[in-house]
Amino acid sequence: MPAQHTHIVVLGAGFGGIGLTIKLRAAGFDDIVVLERADDLGGTWQANTYPGCACDVPSQLYSYSFAPNPEWSRTYGKQPEILDYLRTVAESNDVIRHVRLGTELLAARWDDEQSLWRIETSRGELTADYFLSAAGIFAEAKYPSLPGLETFEGTAFHSLHWDHDHDLSGKRVAVIGTGASAVQFVPEIQPKVAALTVFQRSAPWIVPRMDRPTIGLERRLLRQIPLAQKAVRGTWYSLIEGFGLVGFVDNRFRHPFELLGRIQLRRQIRDPKLRAKVTPDYMIGCKRAIFSDAYLPALDQDNVEVVTDGIAEVRAHSIVTHAGVEIPVDTIIYGTGFTSTPSVFDRIVGHDGRSIAQLFRQRPQTYLGAAVAGFPNFFCTLGPFGAAGNQSAVFMIESQIAYIVDALSTLRARGETRIEVRAQVQRDFVEEMGRRSAETVWLTGGCESYYTTAEGGNAGLYPNWSFEYRWRTRRFDIGSYEVSA
């Protein structure tokens, strides 16, 4: 039985995949199949269900500009509300009929002879003229490598795979990691557990979140005066964009932000010894600063201990530190983040036999975070150097969507069907990113994070203003590509 052929296959039904489908349809493309391995759409907002899961970007900005929502219940949307928003947008824009839920990508390989993509999924084979990846970069859990971990006889799970059937009440819980997810779920579980031990490798910078519920009058004004909603979105955009002053302009701009964090520490941590433990020893912005008003007070409770000695060994019912202290534990929760290169990229192979993952592990590389040399008729969202450290991911995704849709529209108008970014264009872009990154706080701030590669280079953040990126991707630059009929 021959494989079904479709014009465009989109991988992933999160913010990127939903937005791409909406804008492709608006441009007159209708033969679209969206592959989603989960049983529901929503991407990371479907997958992450841990207690306290919320966005760290204000909802008025962390939403599509073409689908504003005046009904957000609070400044920062929580996971259920963001997921409901995505479902509503998908349903109202007739995206659902394009989505194949429970369909995992097993392999995608470019067929140079036939000039098409051959795609194998868990529910059959497809061929496609164009393959667009909107696979999330925070899609797969990263687990620590610890001696004796396999001998632990209690319950252990990652925040991405929260065990909602496991009752934490009265348990002795160890949390490994202090990233953004842990900062959100620690205050939620602290009142329930008998003892909470937080294993911290490096202290995160915590700055005030200032979250609050929105009131009915606000929502009514935003409904009735669309310009007001644009003004609110624009204000938040400008405030968050300002973090670029620290990131890639001059790290001396960090001092006001660090002062804010130190004031937060002094105000919320009473114990001087604990305060010293949770005071960062690197520049703010070197790794992701976290907005929270609840995390530090949770650490300052009688049933919580912060351990910085590091883990030497895991035993059947305990964890032993490098200092030789044995801590009884019933439950281990990993707040250790995500893999830097999701395994799905190992399954996407270009015309020279190499996978996307092989290229990215060799060196983070794309053109504009949206195209990859060696992969014809392929585009992606949030590829290396297509994400910003100082702006909403949705803003960057929308820029890439506009660029990709313009590319396919341009090809259709010209009667051409094959496209690939020129290798030299991509090399020049990556080298430009390297030059611009050399003095950024990400590389000089004194820390290790997923912002950097093992070699100490930029792992894929765009080292410039997001509005400059929007201008750069405002229209498809066909001269940067090899195109043919």
UniProtKB/TrEMBL annotation:
Stored InterPro entries: FAD-bind_Monooxygenase_sf, FAD/NAD-bd_sf
Source organism of this protein record: Nocardia fluminea
One Pfam family it belongs to: Pyr_redox_3
Name this polypeptide is given: Cation diffusion facilitator CzcD-associated flavoprotein CzcO
Region forming the signal peptide: none
PANTHER family assigned: FAD_NAD(P)-BINDING DOMAIN-CONTAINING PROTEIN-RELATED (PTHR42877:SF4), L-ORNITHINE N(5)-MONOOXYGENASE-RELATED (PTHR42877)
